[in-house]
């Protein structure tokens, strides 16, 4: 379980760093950081709950919050212009696949 949580958090960190470091003129960096900070806080709470009590319900909540986080980040694809849309899309896809691979039963 620890490896599973760690790898998911690595994906979250990579996507965040890619987008945060590339917010240019075409995106609202303040709006992005506020929404992402909220999504990360919710995700971290779900991770902590699952780590403390690895039930199916907590796992499902964790997956839901991880998908929600990725939805928020994906909504700011215009911030990825400086790093290249292909690299950005690949990072989002890899993160989504990691979340989809989580089994909660």
Task: Note the main sheet.
Answer: none
Q: Treating each run of at least 4 consecutive H or I residues as one helix, how many helices?
A: 4
Low-confidence stretches: none
Q: Count all strands and give the number.
A: 0
Order of helices and strands: HHHH
Rg from Cα: 14 Å
Distance between the termini: 13 Å
How would you explain this protein's 3D organization?
The structure is a single chain. The chain is an all-alpha fold. The chain has one domain (2-100). The protein has 4 helices and no strands. It has helices at residues 2-20, 29-52, 56-74, 85-100. Helix 1 packs parallel to helix 3, helix 2 (29-52) packs antiparallel against helix 3 (56-74) and helix 3 (56-74) packs antiparallel against helix 4 (85-100). The model has no long low-confidence stretch (mean pLDDT 79).
Please outline the helices and strands.
Layout: H1 2-20, H2 29-52, H3 56-74, H4 85-100
Key descriptive features of the protein:
105 residues; mainly alpha; 4 helices; flat
What's this entry about, in short?
This protein has 105 residues and is mostly helical. Helix content is 74%, strand content 0%. The model has no long low-confidence stretch (mean pLDDT 79).
């Amino acid at each position: 379980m620890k490896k599973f949580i760690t790898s998911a958090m690595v994906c979250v960190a990579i996507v965040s760093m890619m987008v945060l470091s590339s917010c240019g003129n075409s995106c609202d960096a303040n709006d992005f950081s506020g929404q992402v900070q909220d999504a990360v806080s919710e995700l971290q709470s779900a991770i902590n709950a699952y780590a403390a009590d690895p039930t199916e319900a907590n796992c499902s909540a964790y997956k839901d919050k991880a998908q929600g986080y990725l939805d928020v980040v994906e909504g700011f694809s215009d911030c990825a212009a400086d790093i290249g849309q292909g690299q950005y899309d690949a990072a989002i896809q890899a993160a989504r696949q990691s979340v989809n691979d989580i089994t909660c039963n």
